[in-house]
Amino acid sequence: MQNLHSVLFHAPLDRLAKGIVQFDIDQLALKALLVSYSDGRWALMFRDDMERDETALFSAIHQAIGDPSIPVEIITTGKWELTALVADTFHSGRVFLAGDAVHTLPPNSGGYGANTGIHDVHNLAWKLAAVLNGRASPGLLDTYDAERRPVALLRHDQIFVRVDYKVHLGTNAVAGEKIDDNAMEFGQIYISRGFVDVNGDLSLRRNPMSGLVSLGHICRIS
Q1: Superfamily (CATH) of domain 3-81
Q2: What is the reported pTM?
Q3: pLDDT score at 206
């Protein structure tokens, strides 16, 4: 997609937030993400490929935090490639992949990248344990790809119908309907051989909190 720059710095910004948080900087002269690491370190990730000298970096940091009097120590700078890719398969033979190894999802306000990777591992771990302990046949492991890859593909597409990248990419954004954030997190149910009597003809339910969720479908909250 494009190359982006970031700067890692240390600053006493406890007044802004506790713990790990993310701020979307959407100013006329500065478009960036400001992310904390809960130990005094912060990362400012620019939404452009512009080279900045140290003076410009200090200026951008102070502009992002809104206070030029805050002492800032620049730790390092980085350049990284923004990508949006999903692998053709998550599983081949005895090899199982998860997280960024099979899907590189751009940073977004929904946290899809990290969350999706954590969910991959959660899905795979209990299946591996069940097979290795003799409680399930190896066929259970085949459901990993069937269940997790569609989730990654959906989240890939949903990133580009949200304002984070729909505006950023303009006409290159993926067309589609935005699914409610709660439905994205709580309404994702799997269709796979891991369930009994599951087929592709199940109807859509409206609310994943209601207990009326059909297997294999995303629910939209109205």
Answers
A1: D-Amino Acid Oxidase, subunit A, domain 2 (3.30.9.10)
A2: 0.66
A3: 47
